[in-house]
């Protein structure tokens, strides 16, 4: 992804404001739309409907075709975009039409229908307001549901003025009225109307259109011929399933309980023709793919973009290809080829917010990670991850060498403000903590020598620190161990432990991640212990979820990894176990709490840290706005896309400042590094501490 | 249930009026839109009550100020109306004029969309071809700066005339 385009979007102040406001308003509207509904059970149903449908997709396509034909429609089953375009052009030519009206269809964007028709001498007019705007601008949708969200009223007024040859004031109601008046005639003159489809019903042959403006009703009513374009994954067995999809779609898309118009069309009206173009374009093959079929459960609501912190910064012209948002990144390689997906797959920061809202419960983030594995890798990274990370002595030796190498870049307080070479310019507004002189593994060795572990009937905990805490925040590790000991555990640090493998997996090096999973499982399972504690939620996710998945093909290691997974907990979970709840918030200095993405959404842990802060650290927790929105770190993301990362961080720093408190508690060394670096860069005095540190401060008293 | 329907419909910008007689509702139509209006098929009692109205020809639909139609059902949870509009001319009549007035019998209001599944299914399959419009509030868009604006391509006003006391 070109840095220039990213920078241009970051500095597009209208785009930024529009997306920021939307990001703030969407969750409120969405919550209201789902009032009285159980979102989780509704999306479980949608997910199951899609799962079942994908399983018998070829059969469902056949059944739909028969029913639709029985109702008088002509069905064209098209394998490729080219075939679909040709079928549509064929119908248009047969009707002697030189002009068609269209209502919104992402599938028509997928097959790039308009340019094809124009080339063949057929004028294709988009009548959905947003689509018309971007058609006039010669652009593509920047959102699946709100295609022109990136355009402001002045730009729209300029486009309209140019198109209709008179001055249009930048006033929204009058621009809308202009669209109504200007486009009205075309519904009468066009002999062919082309629409998309939101859902198709196999048993009746009906199709469903979910719209707001009313143009789709005109497109499917006034011209004598209606062509409906449908991706085959949109077929469901019966009306009940269709209504479930129709019910979740607008709530998740725009926060509406239902749209103004839901049209259910079965067969052509008297004196009319209905042509249904069913598009495959790799869908049947994808439906047979055990890993990636999940992507086709998408109902195209766009919610994954609505909540994405990266989309909020750069918009859909960067974060997507034709389909945008998280699912857009996933669908692009399948519909538009890996060459178009390579750049954009890296843009996901991995915060998993999209997974939380997806109407079909798709593991969008997981699919993106797995697609990175399939895609092209950065030359040299295999050597870095492979040789270095699998070999503990080499890797740790390299980190120790880095301690010396960083010296020239450290400021008086030891923090790094200027990085050499590639990292220099872009990370200039943040400082980085230095690599510690003594990693925790050395401290632990000495500590366990001086005071050998005394179990004394206590529950035994193995401490898996993660590389960042070990080498950059050794004091955070010490605070963890001391807190747990004060709380009645016996803690041991197995010195052979390796990197959890996440950096390798996130960079698409799954083979290496698998080796790390196997080695770490052996190391941790060698010891007798009740628990394994982590202080980095990404490590937790890796140990708990990724290890068993990665080792699935190795029965013996897989079984061990499942035993290990059952023992792995975050610091806050283990600490909270020992709390006898008083229910009285602490009276110490107030703190605000930032939920790490991988802790909140990856592990479902968000109550325990607050309990630890209130009951053990004796603090009062003051919530910030959006405590669970990403801080912009995302591991190597902060270095790959420093500008996006910093823009996300700025929002987090504003939220922190809004609470007026002097301390932010986090449960992730990555979040600490990111937020602390940002706050230091703006000369804020707010402290950023791991929950374990705040607990230890109190427990030591 | 009527009150729930009314609240939901008003929340999305519909005008809701409750009448104890068809005649009163017909008077409201005349008062709102004048004498020449478009119409889709109407039950006999309503058509008779609208005797003072001239129903326009299809080619005039694009120029008339209003249209009247009849809803098969109302959905209380969302304030939606189920309209059976399988005839393209009748459908055009409800889509083109700026005002759309819909008669709805209070007894046809059901709680939510799932409870309408059976009715929709039988409407879809009871004739050789069918077109159903589930209509909720007036036409709307938020495509420019996400500012909600009423009445882009469809009716700018939706009036729901609930007939009670049958």
Short description:
The complex is a heterodimer of chains A (701) and B (166). Chain A is α/β, with parallel strands linked by helices and 701 residues long.
What would your notes on this structure say?
The complex is a heterodimer of chains A (701) and B (166). Chain A is an alpha/beta fold and 701 residues long. Chain A has 35 helices and 17 strands. In chain A, strands 1-10-7-4-2-3 form a six-stranded parallel beta sheet, sandwiched between helices. Chain A has a four-stranded mixed beta sheet with strand order 8-5-6-9, sandwiched between helices. In chain A, strand 16 (663-666), helix 34 and strand 17 (687-690) form a beta-alpha-beta unit. In chain A, helix 31 (607-616) packs parallel to helix 35. Chain A starts with a helix and ends with a helix. Chain B is of the alpha/beta class. Chain B has one domain (2-163): NagB/RpiA/CoA transferase-like (Rossmann fold, 3-Layer(aba) Sandwich). The longest helix of chain B has 12 residues, at 22-33. The model of chain B has no long low-confidence stretch (mean pLDDT 93). The chains are: A alpha/beta (701), B alpha/beta (166). The interface between A and B is large, with 64 and 47 residues. Strand 9 (261-266) of chain A pairs antiparallel with strand 9 (130-135) of chain B.
Percentage beta strand of chain A: 5-15%
CATH level 3 topology of chain B:
Rossmann fold
Total number of helical segments of chain B?
Answer: 5
Strand elements of chain B, count: 12
Name the beta content range of chain B.
25-35%
Sheet bearing the most strands of chain A, described? 6 strands, parallel
Question: According to CATH, what is the topology of the domain at 402-575 in chain A?
Answer: Rossmann fold
Task: Tell me what the CATH architecture of chain B is.
Answer: 3-Layer(aba) Sandwich
CATH C-level name of the domain at 402-575 in chain A: Alpha Beta
Structural class of chain B: alpha/beta
N/C terminus separation of chain A: 52 Å
């Amino acid at each position: 992804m070109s840095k220039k385009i990213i920078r241009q979007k970051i500095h597009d102040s209208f785009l930024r404001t529009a997306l920021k406001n939307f990001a703030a308003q969407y969750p409120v509207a969405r919550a209201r739309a789902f009032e009285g509904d159980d979102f989780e059970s509704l999306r479980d149903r949608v997910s199951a409907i899609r799962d079942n449908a994908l399983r018998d997709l070829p059969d469902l396509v056949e059944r739909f075709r028969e029913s639709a034909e029985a109702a008088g429609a002509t069905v064209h089953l098209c394998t490729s975009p080219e075939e679909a375009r040709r079928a549509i052009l064929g119908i248009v030519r047969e009707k002697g039409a030189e002009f068609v009206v269209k209502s919104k269809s992402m599938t028509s964007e997928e097959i790039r229908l308009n340019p094809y028709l124009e080339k063949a001498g057929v004028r294709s007019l988009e009548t959905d307001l947003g689509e018309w705007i971007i058609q006039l601008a010669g652009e593509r949708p920047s959102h699946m549901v709100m295609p022109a969200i990136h355009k402001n009223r002045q730009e729209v007024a300029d486009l309209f003025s140019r198109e209709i040859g008179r001055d249009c004031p930048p006033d929204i109601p009058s621009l809308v009225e202009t669209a109504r008046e200007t486009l009205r005639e075309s519904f009468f003159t066009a002999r062919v109307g082309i629409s998309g489809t939101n859902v198709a019903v196999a048993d009746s042959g009906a199709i469903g259109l979910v719209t707001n403006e009313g143009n789709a009703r005109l497109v499917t009513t006034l011209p004598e011929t209606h062509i409906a374009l449908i991706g085959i994954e949109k077929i469901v067995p019966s009306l009940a399933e269709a209504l479930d999809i129709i019910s979740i779609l607008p709530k998740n898309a725009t926060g509406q309980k239902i749209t103004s118009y839901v049209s259910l069309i079965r067969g052509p009206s008297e004196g009319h023709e209905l042509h249904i173009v069913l598009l495959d374009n790799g869908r049947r093959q994808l439906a047979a793919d055990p890993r990636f079929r999940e992507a086709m459960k998408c109902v195209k609501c766009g919610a994954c973009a609505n909540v994405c912190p990266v989309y909020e910064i750069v918009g859909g012209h960067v974060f997507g290809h034709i389909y945008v948002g998280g699912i857009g990144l996933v669908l692009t390689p399948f519909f538009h080829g890996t060459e178009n997906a390579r750049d954009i797959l890296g843009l996901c920061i991995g915060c998993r917010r999209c997974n939380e809202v997806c109407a079909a419960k798709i593991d969008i983030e997981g699919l993106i990670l797995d697609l990175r594995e399939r895609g092209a890798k950065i030359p040299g990274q295999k050597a870095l991850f492979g040789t270095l990370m699998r070999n503990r002595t080499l890797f740790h030796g390299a980190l120790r060498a880095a301690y010396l190498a960083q010296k020239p870049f450290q400021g008086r307080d030891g923090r790094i403000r200027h990085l050499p070479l590639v990292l220099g310019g872009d990370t200039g507004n943040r400082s980085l903590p230095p690599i510690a002189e003594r990693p925790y593994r050395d401290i632990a060795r000495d500590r366990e020598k001086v005071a050998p572990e005394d179990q004394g009937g206590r529950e035994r905990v193995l401490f898996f620190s993660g590389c960042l805490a070990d080498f950059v925040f050794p004091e955070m590790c010490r605070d963890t161990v001391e807190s747990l000991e004060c709380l009645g555990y016996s803690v041991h640090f197995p010195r052979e432990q390796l990197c959890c493998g996440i950096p390798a997996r996130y960079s698409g090096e799954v083979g290496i991640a698998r080796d790390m999973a196997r080695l770490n499982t052996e190391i941790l399972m060698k010891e007798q212990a009740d628990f394994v504690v982590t202080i980095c939620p990404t490590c937790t996710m890796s140990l708990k979820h990724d290890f068993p998945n990665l080792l699935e093909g190795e029965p013996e290691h897989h079984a061990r990894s499942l035993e290990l997974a059952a023992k792995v907990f975050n610091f806050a979970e283990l600490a909270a176990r020992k709390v006898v709840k008083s229910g009285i918030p602490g009276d110490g200095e107030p703190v605000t709490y930032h939920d790490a993405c991988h802790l909140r959404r990856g592990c479902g842990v968000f109550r325990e840290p607050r309990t630890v802060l209130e009951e053990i650290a004796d603090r009062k927790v003051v919530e910030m706005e959006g405590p669970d929105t990403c801080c912009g770190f995302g591991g190597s993301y902060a270095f790959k896309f420093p500008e996006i990362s910093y823009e996300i961080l700025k929002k987090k720093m504003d939220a922190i400042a809004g609470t007026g408190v002097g301390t932010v508690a986090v449960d992730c060394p990555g979040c600490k590094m990111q937020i602390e670096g940002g706050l230091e860069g703006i000369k804020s005095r707010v402290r950023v501490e791991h929950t374990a540190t705040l607990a230890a401060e109190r427990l030591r008293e | 249930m009527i009150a729930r329907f009314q609240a939901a419909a008003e929340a999305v910008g519909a005008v809701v009026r409750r009448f104890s007689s068809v005649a009163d509702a017909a008077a409201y139509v005349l008062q709102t839109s004048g004498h020449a209006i478009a119409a889709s098929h109407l039950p006999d009692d309503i058509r008779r009550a609208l005797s003072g109205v001239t129903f326009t020809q299809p080619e005039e639909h694009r120029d008339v100020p209003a249209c009247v139609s009849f809803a098969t059902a109302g959905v209380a949870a969302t304030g939606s109306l189920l309209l059976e509009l399988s005839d393209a001319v009748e459908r055009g009549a409800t889509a083109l004029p700026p005002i759309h007035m819909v008669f709805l019998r209070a007894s046809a209001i059901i709680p939510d969309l799932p409870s309408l599944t059976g009715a929709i299914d039988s409407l879809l399959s009871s004739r050789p071809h069918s077109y159903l419009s589930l209509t909720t509030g007036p036409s709307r868009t938020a495509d420019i700066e996400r500012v909600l604006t009423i009445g882009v391509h469809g009716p700018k006003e939706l009036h729901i005339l609930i007939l009670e006391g049958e």
